[in-house]
Amino acid sequence: MTLKISESLKLPCGVVIKNRLAKSAMSENMGTSFYPGEEFYHCYKKWGEGGLGLAMTGNIMVDSRHLGEPHNVVIEKNHKNYDKMIAGLKKWASVIQETGMDIWPQINHPGKQTPKFLTPEPVAPSAVALKPPLDKMFNTPRELSEEEILDIIERFGYAAKISKECGFTGVQIHGAHGYLVSQFLSSSSNQRSDRWGGSIEARFNFVKEIYLSMRKNVGDDFPIGIKLNSADFSKGGFTHEEAIFVTKSLSELGIDLIEISGGTYEKTTMMGNDNGKPVKESTRKREAYFIEYAKDIREHIKCPLMVTGGFRTLDFMEETLERDELDLVGIARPVAIDPRWPNQLLDNQRIESKVKPLTSGFKILDTIFPLEIIWYTYQIHRMGHRKDPQPKKGVYPIIFQSAWSIGMQSLRRVRG
Q1: What is the C-alpha separation between 104 and 89, in angstroms, rounded?
Q2: Is residue 1 part of a domain?
Q3: What is the mean pLDDT of residues 59-83?
Q4: What stretch of H or E contains 46?
Q5: How many CB atoms lie within 10 A of CB 236?
Q6: What is the total count of domains within the chain?
Q7: Which of 67, 203, 225, 285 has its CA 20 to 30 A from that of 175?
């Protein structure tokens, strides 16, 4: 019997993904002065050899003045290490030819979700701060001007252009998890009264113009995808009904792939918890956190759908594909601790992922430190240095290491 996950997928633009297993974006945070080094090549080669059909990169920022993390890769015209940026991106993309795995850079702007030690004056649709206790680590943002909004849109288009020229096989807009695109879509963070705010139709304009700028730069035969929240899961935030409108509208514009996730820094649903509190047992039993929301969205779109968050068994992946609830199975943390897992699944080995919720045991620490992010980033760094992941690594060494790093960077104002 042929497994559904082993079937290829043809996108609207004509590109074919070799199977239905896709790595969702995870932060690498191992750039050097905003460009990718050999570590990115080694890490993604390991994932490619592990059997994935598609891999989304971690955040690639469009503006070196606005970073989500100290060691983000940046694609911009005035890059201070432009030649190294291009060389690093080409080397990274060469994994595609070596393993057959497609790689799509995830293009992003953090908006107000940039730590104080990185950006003293963050920007956002409106001057709305993150809620306590996160306001202790993130400054209140300044409202973007019309000119700045247009500049950011152009930057997204340029990043897509460079990605294509360097050999990547697609790009993804990060429109989820409370970053800038997500901020524009949410009425709680976007309180503008001009053409960029107000109704959901107006709040949609920012991401619509980003998509059109990218499409203009890469043409009709190059994949463009987007990662969107199924909802923010917070009062006054982006709703599921609004998500349906946005996904339907993007599908009609010609987008090639929509990935569904959910949550923000203030509501960490995408991590399988709510700021340290585990998800409901009913959610865990159905394995994929956002599958019910994705079913609604699927009824309104024409393009393929990818769902990420919570997939742990081959049986459930096969069931969701068999029921036509999605087209691509998004996995992230499982391949951070075992990059060979996709090949095991494709070989029909019923090996359940060993991913478990992480907690320090202290709610305040779990809220201030993005524990899931920094622990899995550590595993990615090991692969980047040609080492195997350490799934049994404790959380406290990672917390202390992160706290030390943040403190030193804050003192030195390290920006790359």
Answers
A1: 11
A2: no
A3: 97
A4: helix 38-49
A5: 10
A6: 1
A7: 285
